[in-house]
Specification:
The protein is α+β, with helices and mostly antiparallel strands. It has one domain (about 35-160, about 170-205). Helices cover about 30% and strands about 20% of the residues. The chain contains 2 helices and 7 strands, in the order αββββαβββ. Strands 1, 2, 3, 4, 5, 6 and 7 form a 7-stranded mixed sheet that branches. The chain is elongated.
Length: about 210
């Protein structure tokens, strides 16, 4: 009588264990590689954001220098005849007819459009500012309610009950600044002024691209 050979079960050998371990190690290496790339990308993004924030702050400081320069020119040193255009001082006695959707005059949209001979302010640290002052009037000449946007000197006057001795209303002015910095960076700022107030600075904002 023939006996059937007994089936034998063999356990996993050393080579099989090494194969599983190698597979797990390869998966771990790939996972670590992806994690490393994500970390590098996050660090680069954070650095770029920090650089952009710093550049925007520096541009704002540079624009402030130009703004204060224009406050002095308009209201303190008498350098301007505000009833007529003075391109050499970056001043226009009426609204510039062409501007973009943000209200930036064409003269500031590129360095090539800036008036020849108009001043460029060196704000330091590699920043320069091109700037335009506009009187918010339709035409040059003596300001009037029909021609200009006039600001009341006081809250009472704005409410229609000016106190005795109230000075006349005066036109408002818009200052737009193009700030150019290192690496070709460009930013814009805009401010509103009025001579009728103790502090002529009415508003200030950085403009988005």
């Amino acid at each position: 009588m023939n006996r059937s050979p007994k089936a034998t079960t063999r356990g996993a050998g050393p080579h099989d264990h090494r194969g599983v371990i190698l597979l797990i190690a390869m998966v771990a290496v790939v996972a670590l590689a992806f994690a490393g790339m994500s970390l590098v990308r996050a660090v680069a993004t954070a650095a770029a954001i920090g650089s952009n924030v710093n550049a925007r702050q520096q541009a704002m400081y540079a624009a402030t220098v130009a703004f204060e320069h224009d406050v002095v020119a308009l209201f303190e040193d008498g350098a301007l005849d505000t009833t007529r255009d003075d391109p050499a001082h970056n001043y226009f006695a009426s609204r510039v007819p062409t501007e973009d959707r943000r209200g930036v005059p064409r003269a500031l949209l590129s360095a090539a459009d800036y008036p020849a001979g108009a001043s460029i302010i060196d704000a330091g640290d590699g920043f320069v500012v091109r700037h335009v002052i506009e009187r918010l009037c339709a035409l040059q000449g003596v300001p009037s309610a029909d021609n200009c946007t006039l600001s009341p000197p006081s809250i009472e006057a704005a409410a229609g009950a000016p106190p005795p001795g109230e000075p006349p209303r005066e036109p408002a002015y818009r200052v737009t600044m193009r700030v150019e910095g290192p690496g070709g960076a460009v930013a814009y700022a805009q401010a509103m002024l009025s001579v009728t107030r103790p502090n002529p600075r009415l508003s200030w904002q950085m403009l988005d691209e």
